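Budget justification aside, the reviewers requested a transparent look at the raw inputs and outputs of the sequence design task funded under Objective 1. We therefore reproduce one unedited record. The lines immediately below are the structure tokens for a 204-residue chain.
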């Protein structure tokens, strides 16, 4: 249940950031563009491993097919590596904003943001093949299964769950956008309920 709730917090926390960023025009800036992509990748990281882990815990089983293992490994390396590249891009974005504030909008234009995001992806594909080669060449080295499991838990569950709190939910702009989004959703929900009541009254 602990892992299940951690997974739900990760998914809904990052999803809230994505929706707030999309719905609020004030957040259509490079920083929040990269932040929403980071949230999407964090959802993908946890969704690659956690559902299978929860299934195995529930059924007291450690079995996984060879094909499933290879597929899971591919996407874990892909999304975890992409996480790192996006954090690097976000660091560069903040460097430009702090050191070159007057030229920020010129330097961090939509074209450059798109290119940086694209470079983060295709780079991660190269990283995957390099990593696979390293694993193949070092397969004779013994590893502690307990330490490997602990490390896997940290970067596939804990880190993606904390990212919304670290990078977004303490941000005033994100908080305002989420309040506006929740308020708009509540207003629309109330309007739908009123419409349904009116339809039922007319029908009766």
């Amino acid at each position: 249940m602990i892992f299940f709730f951690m997974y739900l917090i990760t998914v809904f926390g990052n999803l809230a950031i994505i929706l707030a960023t999309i719905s609020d025009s004030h957040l259509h800036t490079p920083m929040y563009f990269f932040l929403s992509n980071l949230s999407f990748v964090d959802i993908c990281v946890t969704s690659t491993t956690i559902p299978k882990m929860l299934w195995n815990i529930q059924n007291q089983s450690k079995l996984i097919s060879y094909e499933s293992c290879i597929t899971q490994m591919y996407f874990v390396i892909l999304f975890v590596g992409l996480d790192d590249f996006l954090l690097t891009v976000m660091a560069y974005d903040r460097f430009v904003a702090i050191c070159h504030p007057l030229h920020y909008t010129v330097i961090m234009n939509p074209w450059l943001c798109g290119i940086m995001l694209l470079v983060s992806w295709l780079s991660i594909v190269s990283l995957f093949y390099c990593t696979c080669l390293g694993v193949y060449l070092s397969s004779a080295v013994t590893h502690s299964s307990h330490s490997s499991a602990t490390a896997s838990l940290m970067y596939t569950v804990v880190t993606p769950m904390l990212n919304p709190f670290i990078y977004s939910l303490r941000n005033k702009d994100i908080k305002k956008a989420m309040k506006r989004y929740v308020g708009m959703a509540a207003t629309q929900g109330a309007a739908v309920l009123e419409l349904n009541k009116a339809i039922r009254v007319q029908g009766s």
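The chain has a mean pLDDT of 76. The longest helix spans residues 66-99. Computational costs for records of this kind are itemized in the attached budget.
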